[in-house]
Amino acid sequence: MMKKMSISTSKTSLVLFLCQIISALDVPLDLSQPPTITQQSPKDYIVDPRENIVIQCEAKGKPPPSFSWTRNGTHFDIDKDAQVTMKPNSGTLVINIMNGGKAEAYEGVYQCTARNERGAAISNNIVVRPSRSPLWTKEKLEPNHVREGDSLVLHCRPPVGLPPPIIFWMDNAFQRLPQSERVSQGLNGDLYFSNVQPEDTREDYICYARFNHTQTIQQKQPISVKVFSTKPVTERQPVLLTPTGSTSTKVELRGNVLLLECIAAGLPTPVIRWIKEGGELPANRTFFENFKKTLKIIDVSEADSGNYKCIARNALGSVHHVISVTVKAAPYWITAPRNLVLSPGEDGTLICRANGNPKPSISWLANGVPIAIAPEDPSRKVDGDTIIFSHVQERSSAVYQCNASNEYGYLLANAFVNVLAEPPRILTPANKLYQVIADSPALLDCAYFGSPKPEIEWFKGVKGSILRGNEYVFHDNGTLEIPVAQKNNAGTYTCVARNKLGKIQNEVQLEIKDPTMIIKQPEYKVIQRYGQVSFECIIKHDSTLLPTVTWLKDNDELPDDERFLVGKDNLTIMNVTDKDDGTYTCIVNTTLDSVSASAVLTVVARPNPPFDLELTGQLERSIDLSWLPGDENNSPITSFVIEFEDALHEPGVWRYQTEVPGSQTTAQLKLSPYVNYSFRVIAVNRIGRSQPSEPSEQYLTKSASPDENPANVQGIGSEPDNLVITWEPLKGFQSNGPGLQYKVSWRQKDVDDEWTSVIVANVSKYIVSGTPTFVPYEVKVQALNDLGYAPEPSEVIGHSGEDLPMVAPGNVQVHVINSTLAKVHWDPVPLKSVRGHLQGYKVYYWKVQSLSRRSRRHVEKKILTFRGNKTFGMLPGLEPYSSYKLNVRVVNGKGEGPASPDKVFKTPEGVPSSPSFLKITNPTLDSLTLEWGSPTHPNGVLTSYTLKFQPINNTHELGPLVEIRIPANESSLILKNLNYSTRYKFYFNAQTSVGSGSQITEEAVTIMDEVQPLYPRIRNVTTAAAETYANISWEYEGPDHANFYVEYGVAGSKEDWKKEIVNGSRSFFVLKGLTPGTAYKVRVGAEGLSGFRSSEDVFETGPAMASRQVDIATQGWFIGLMCAVALLILILLIVCFIRRNKGGKYPVKEKEDAHADPEIQPMKEDDGTFGEYSDAEDHKPLKKGSRTPSDRTVKKEDSDDSLVDYGEGVNGQFNEDGSFIGQYSGKKEKEPAEGNESSEAPSPVNAMNSFV
Predict the structure, then answer these.
(1) Lowest-confidence pick of 341-350, 750-759, 1148-1157
(2) Helix (H, G, I), strand (E, B) or coil at 1102
(3) Cα separation of 67 and 86, whole Å?
(4) Cβ-contact 925, 1007 below 8 angstroms
(5) 168-172, 253-257, 520-524, 1246-1250: lowest mean pLDDT where?
(6) pLDDT, position 581
(7) Nearest-CA neighbor of 886 among 832, 931, 824?
């Protein structure tokens, strides 16, 4: 929803133009002219008696006029009244009331006269009256005793004030009394009750009268109303309280507001309706107020006269009243006289035409004197409402007054006749600049004056031709109008004014500007409460105009709230609330135009919770629930969810009962016996669910026997000799009464046995012992309570407990399909031997050895499970040319049966994997040396190798392909007779009797003139694969600072290569996230080397392991053990040292002093112990690299099993799980640890070494 407005400049220009027409006859103030009244007080002038009285009278003229006043028709000599002064250069009177004057003494009719040598102008008759706010008269008010349902009128009867007061009713706490269709205030201020109710009883009905002029409020004494009840209350048909009777009349003046009133009594409260007999109520001017008891028609005219009928109706009947309205009219202007400027010898007229009802009379005055007794003027002739002037002379100048009056009022207008002889003058400033928006009217002023009246002509440019034609409009006041201004209308325009006394011209400038436009308008938005919303307003404007953008909300200023963020092109509202709902308008203003666009923001939210829940129609198994919906928050309610609480069985737990459409506010609910119900309702709309309503009242249903039995009854044995019967217990509200129990019954199926039954408490399980193994049973569970049994339950089939199968599958046969797939068959076991539910068969198989290498490895058994009663299965993923064993076992719910005898089978040969590497060395002018490794997985007996190669020219085109067959026992080859300085691409693979394996590729270049080749080279790509990652390494020859990348993919797949960038210039990379047991292809490339890549290599990740190898040195238990051992050794050393000191003298002290090692602390003199190793501090960890308490040092190589021997060596690497991979470099010789020179991190093993 979006609205757009454009405030054009044409309307503004038109208003200015009309003003120019009105002022076109104004005589410049430097020329002689009669007086003109410019400001005066209103005809009916009510003043505050506490303040000075100011009666305004301002006028202009040349020479400046003098002023005089009349009061009540006689001259008012202000010099004789010290309280009255006249403002300097003005006719305004100031009557000093604040210094002792009395306003009542100056009440009367005042008229001002402004006079100079050319005439006299007079003001209206100004009736001055002081305002009055009298007190209420004392009266004794008796309490009103009213019967419930009767009508009542509380009279206000305010004192008569000037002007009349505003009436309202309040209580003692100054709170307005609530009004409604039943209770309302009439136009006369009385309070009307169509019918009284008990809640109307109160003692503080107070009528207040507010007098605005004196800013005072008068209070009537409180009125008491006491309503007494009688049963039953009698209903009554309507009776009019006001107006009385069936007809009445009303007279209103034209232009005023017509107020008609009808207030009726009755029970039920009557409803008022208005019609106009023989016509329609005027559209756009008719309003209903006071709960339709008042008909209001604004700006009435004679056409609104007629009969207006009000009809009061309730369920018992109706009553009506007809008001005959007559619209009269005080005089109003048709043509008011206007100032007349004439040159000597010219003719002219003054016209005074007015209308009214009754028609007003017209009278003329000259200089304030009735024209009949005014000095005669031969050039003047009065003809009713017109004065005709012929061959005027300068002495004909005067001010004429026209008075139009009837019984409802009068009009008085001044118009002068000014006889002047003046050459033209142009009043518009020279070179005035006009700026107009394109396609809008352009109005170029040429305000002028002259007598006789000058003629006006317009020219385009300084020396252009006179403007004529339909493109222009020439107005009487001299204005040139261009109705639709275009860019080519810009420029200089010249206005020429001439009369018989002279000629004058003036130039103005016209600029045409581009219109301001909103090219991206705000759009209708729906936003959830607490969200964020933004309105756009992107504009385009003339580059010479400075626009200002203003945002409004509901045509008012934006709230003073930091949540409203006004940007250059948008308005953003943060954390939207309900009060932000409304219309947002973007207004763009320049000095010439204004445009706007609006959009509506609708704030939606979850509905408010329903309220006023009511229970009706209570029955044993049903009840009716009704509610009132809460506010839907601008998103219609789609449904209501009804929940219930069982305070008897599950207090505080609410459960789903039903859901009804959003248009429904009642529901009939099904009930269960023996439940203490409470209900609540949740409203749902598109935004979400409301908060739950307040709970309804509680309703307890009567008890009954159960309606249903437990669900999900099962009989499943947990042991070979039992039957466990389980069921889902009934919920509390399903019990239907107290004392819920269950009757559990069972009997063996297909055996002529009687039912065995037992009654148990409210539990969910019963165990039957001593049953045969895995036999079927019929089982049923019936609910009962203190009032009886539930209906007869249905029977279910269960089985007693299972035992392990007794027999292994027989006649196991294996059919080898190819080198990686085999099919196994077996005979099913007898069902009786299964002793349980047959779940399927498991095939255990494992590789015994590879037939090509004759090497055994750790046996890893694999298991395949075949569900159901299948007698065959496929064994995929076998290794070619290998020996396997398998057996088969039957499986039931208890477990697996015995295995069948192991069956041996062998897989045939397959194609080999790619050679493990291909190296090309010793390049010469015409030869290359090739070296390779045998395939990692030969998958059979290798028969030969195939080498294919072809040259590559400088444009990367491939030459003819050469193929060479190489015996299987070879591992190198020298290729001769090659072209010098030529790049070759090699393709190398191995063959078995089955066929060729995947190939490895490499490129190499023969040298030129026995010089090292210039081409970059990546060779000797090697891989070391683990379960989910692989280490890739290579050798590189070529320019420095090459940027390497590794590409890899699944071997044999057509998918695109995956690319990993190598950081820096390293010659190794770790590929992570690989799939265990998968063959991958890999190659290495260098960025910026014309797409140069290494040959491809193929590797296979290791199989998925059941568990990962754990580094023992990082395990908590191992570290704790080492610490304990270290502590014991420390204690033993201290004991030995003490015993040695007791048994003889050793030069320990001298040796310690000689070493002067800061890590060795001297013995404490007080206790004879070492500071570092005292008993009191033996819990402290040893310092890194500390010595034993002797002069001996400990070398790390003294400990053969120290973990530091497997640290980060040059060639050693650790994989992700801590296991060692890569080439073993052997032990590196270590230097003895002297004092603090040791740099190894402390470990439990290092700690032990320090004590050896």
Answers:
(1) 1148-1157
(2) coil
(3) 9
(4) yes
(5) 1246-1250
(6) 93
(7) 824
Q: Which residues contact 47 (CB under 8 A, 6 or more apart)?
A: 53, 103, 128, 129, 130, 131
- 3-state SS assignment for residue 1020: strand
pTM of the model: 0.51
For the stretch 490-512, pLDDT in tens is: 999 999 999 999 999 999 999 99
User: Tokens for 254?
Assistant: 């034209």
CA angle centred on 859, ends 854 and 864, rounded to 5°: 120
Torsion on CA atoms 1050, 1053, 1057, 1063, rounded to nearest 10: 10
Q: Output the pLDDT for position 1180.
A: 36
Structure tokens at 196: 């009284």
Is there a contact between 304 and 263 (Cβ–Cβ < 8 Å)? no
Quote the DSSP letter at residue 1170. B
| Residue type at 29 in one-letter notation | L
Is the model's pLDDT at 1239 over the cut of 60?
no
Sheet holding 1043-1050, edge to edge: 1058-1061, 1043-1050, 1079-1087, 1097-1100
Q: Are strands 699-700 and 1213-1214 parallel, antiparallel or unpaired?
A: unpaired
SS3 46: strand
Between residues 237 and 469, the one the model is more confident about: 237
The H-or-E segment that residue 594 falls in is strand 594-604
- CA 562, CA 50: separation in Å to the nearest integer? 47
Residues 108-137 have a mean pLDDT of: 93
CA distance 641 to 1199: 78
Q: What gap in Å lies between CA 94 and CA 310, rounded to an integer?
A: 51
Q: Which residue has the tokens 């779940």?
A: 839
787 alpha carbon, distance to own chain's centre:
58
State the amino acid at position 675 in one-letter form: V
Q: Which residue, among 1060, 1082, 1071, 1091, has the nearest Cα to 1029 in the 3D structure?
A: 1071
Strands 44-47 and 126-130: parallel
Q: Rg of the chain's alpha carbons, rounded to an integer?
A: 58
What's the full length of the chain, in residues?
Answer: 1252
Question: Which residues contact residue 194 at a Cβ distance below 8 angstroms, ignoring those fewer than 6 apart?
Answer: 151, 181, 182, 183, 241, 263, 264, 265, 266, 267, 269, 270
Confidence of residue 1231 (pLDDT cuts 50, 70, 90): very low
The single-letter DSSP state of residue 65 is P
CA atoms within 13 A on the CB side of 15: 4
Beta strands in 155-246 (DSSP E): 166-170, 183-185, 191-193, 202-211, 216-219, 223-228, 236-242
Which among 76, 77, 69 has a CA at the least distance from the CA of 112? 69
**In which residue are the tokens 């100079």 written?**
116
Distances in Å between the alpha carbon of 1087 and those of 338, 1039, 1042, 1064, 1096? 97, 12, 7, 12, 17
- Burial class of 1221 by CB neighbour count within 10 A (0 to 12, 13 to 18, 19+): middle
Lowest mean pLDDT among 5-14, 391-400, 852-861, 924-933: 5-14
Q: How far apart are the C-alpha atoms of 1050 and 1055, rounded to whole Å?
A: 8
Residues ≥6 apart with Cβ < 8 Å to 832? none
Q: Would you place residue 1113 in the very low, low, confident or very high pLDDT band (cuts 50, 70, 90)?
A: low
Please state, in angstroms and rounded to a whole number, the distance separating the CA atoms of residues 608 and 640: 12
Would you call 409 exposed, middle or buried from its count of C-beta atoms within 10 A (0-12, 13-18, 19+)? middle
Give every strand in the sheet of 191-193, ordered side by side.
152-154, 191-193, 183-185
Q: Mean pLDDT throughout 930-957?
A: 91
Reading the block at residue 159, the tokens are: 């004192």
The distance from CA 477 to its chain's CA centroid, rounded to whole angstroms, is 59
Structure tokens at 677: 């119900």
Q: Please state, in angstroms and rounded to a whole number, the distance separating the CA atoms of residues 797 and 746.
A: 10
Report the pLDDT averaged over residues 457-484.
Answer: 88
Angle value at C-alpha 859, between 858 and 863, nearest 5 degrees: 145
What the block records as the tokens of 1116 is 């908590």
